Amino acid sequence: MSNSAQIGVTGLAVMGRNLARNFARNGYTVALHNRTAARTHALVEEFGHEGDFVSTETAKEFVEALERPRRLMIMVKAGEPTDAVIQEFAPLLEPGDMIIDGGNAHFEDTRRRERDLRDQGIHFVGTGVSGGEEGALNGPSIMPGGSKESYASLGPMLEKISAKAPDGSPCVTHCGPDGAGHFVKMVHNGIEYADMQLIGEAYQLLRDVAGYSPAQIADIFRTWNTGRLDSYLIEITAEVLSHVDAATGKPFVDVVQDRAEQKGTGRWTVQIALDLGVPVSGIAEAVFARSLSGHADLRAASRELAGPKAKPLGDSEAGAFADRVEQALYASKIVSYTQGFHEISAGSDQYDWDIDLGAVSAIWRGGCIIRAAFLDRIRAAYDARPDLPSLLSDETFAQEIAAAQDDWREVLVAATRQGVPAPGFSAALAYYDALRADRLPAALTQGQRDFFGAHTYRRVDREGSFHTLWGGDRSEVEA
Ligand code: 6PG
To answer: What's this model's pTM, rounded to 2 decimal places?
Structure first.
């Protein structure tokens, strides 16, 4: 077996197969391995003409086919299947070799694996790959973590197969050591959830309050996609909403069960944010909205609860309302991205990753699910001020959100009055108002905590912690 393959891919389901093809199409010799060899043979049979594949049957053959330092990419399910594949291959590798995990692994699993393999001199590169099947084949956004040494060897290859941003730059960056790449991918998915929830709320408001049909709403999204909301998710929303179900002739969106599923990366984003103390309310509402939609029995039992049913506006008002919804959607989107980038920054500090937020937004301009012109604006904001405390501190975004104020609030008044749930829009505005509030009810919370738990509080007029003797003369003592 010649050891000429620059990269090996084990796990040839759709994502693994398409990444292997992408590497081969870009001129690399690609070693192939799959637990069931039939899948390996099928790939070579169907796509062997696309490049130089080395088909292997066993782990030993697979490793022997790789040039040094060996680059072995795992594309299997996150969790135990990934650990099993690592255990199978690690003993066959030598110091300096690398294992790349392109699955949606939890970053803490990646940190553990990187630590364990580092002791054997093997680089473990947890890598976020975003863009679905099409992205894997034609150019994903790639978010590798791991050591600088591994990126020196692997980076140029990833840059070659990645999506390219509008300015031609590859949508890859070394996110940082150990689990940084999978952490960034996790937050990408959390932002994706928030984006999708906000789009869903805009759709429902245009449907129920403006009274538009799915086809009309598709046209509205197509128009929005030519402006500041230009993005993959807005683009595909127009496609989904304009699609007609062949079996019934009804709008496709009306024949789909309204119960959203989730593989878990959005949930992780919120769980980690809770641990980091980062308010990602937009992402959290998106996760909860998916969960709520799945409680069919609870929803059925609640259907008759008192509350308004939306009465569609007249044609003359519907257009103006749609313009307001665009403002609310864009303002809420700025808030969701502000929260997501805050989480990345907090994770970077917590785990000492030194993540470059400008570089992360730059690689999200192409290939990934949240790809959008908007991300180039975020890149510019962080490149101009790497220490930007929040995206809302960027003058341009602050001005845009200021301009959206009235419409944003009007849309929420309409949603509230008409009984249309808009948890994402509401959470975004509540976050925004809380950030800019002179005083928050947290002062009362501290008083309550001190009353029932003697948990102490701080004063606005002097240093220190204090406790009030609530059960006695209510005098104040320094804690
Ligand atoms: C991507 C996607 C992908 C995601 C699946 C399922 O970046 O290509 O985010 O990684 O996991 O599309 O997502 P959910 O089931 O969590 O919605």
So the answer is: 0.97
